[in-house]
Amino acid sequence: xxxxxxxxxxxxxxxxxxxxxxxxxxxxxxxxxxxxxxxxxxxxxxxxxxxxxxxxxxxxxxxxxxxxxxxxxxxxxxxxxxxxx
Length: 85
Description:
Elements: E1 9-10, H1 21-28, E2 32-34, E3 40-42, E4 51-56, E5 62-66, H2 77-81
Antiparallel strand pairs: 1-4, 2-3, 4-5
């Protein structure tokens, strides 16, 4: 049996959100929501970044971190002018 490699990059969707408890908790608390295109966003409009594989622990558990290249400041003009789809 071959060992399945974890994906290098994951985008959070309604279908896989439950696999990521910290983001599921933020969603349940109303701190994140999905836009009309299914993209998970912070309330000021910035998208939740894709999760990228940062390492694999000794026990084989994949560790991911959020990619921040699309973030923007909640106090910025971009946040003020963001329109939900």
